[in-house]
Specification:
Helix content: 25-40%
Largest sheet: 2 strands, antiparallel
Radius of gyration: 16 Å
Order of helices and strands: HHHHEE
Distance between the termini: 23 Å
Structural class: mainly alpha
Number of strands: 2
Length: 112
């Protein structure tokens, strides 16, 4: 909630996940509108994208939007938290975040 007013204006207009007053229904409506507007489709599936997010790069991007030490500390802890496997075991991670995790948020910001 602290970061939302800071980063919300910087999100790409076509980003719908974890955005206030935006939903999957809004994303579908936009897709439907564009399907009638254009005669072509571009489909991209970046396999393993969320699995490859670099922790240091994520933190560097976050530091461009806040200097609040407590936010930086929590995000770093979330990133580096052990991953619980289905069989009950845990494993440490050096990069990556679960797909759809709110911690993936800074990757959706516009870079310009």
């Amino acid at each position: 909630m602290y970061l939302e007013p800071i980063v919300e204006p910087k999100f790409h207009n076509d980003s719908y996940g974890y955005r206030p007053k935006r939903s999957q229904h809004d994303a579908l409506a936009q897709a439907r509108t564009r399907c009638w507007k254009y005669d072509w489709v571009l489909e991209i599936d970046i396999k393993g994208y969320f699995d490859s997010i670099d922790f240091e790069l994520m933190m560097a991007l976050l530091k461009k939007h806040t200097e609040e030490r407590w936010i930086l500390l929590y995000v770093e802890r979330w990133l580096k938290a052990e991953l619980a496997e289905r069989d009950g075991t845990t494993r440490s991670r050096e990069k990556g975040t679960p797909q759809g995790s709110v911690i993936a948020l800074p990757t959706m910001l516009q870079t310009s």
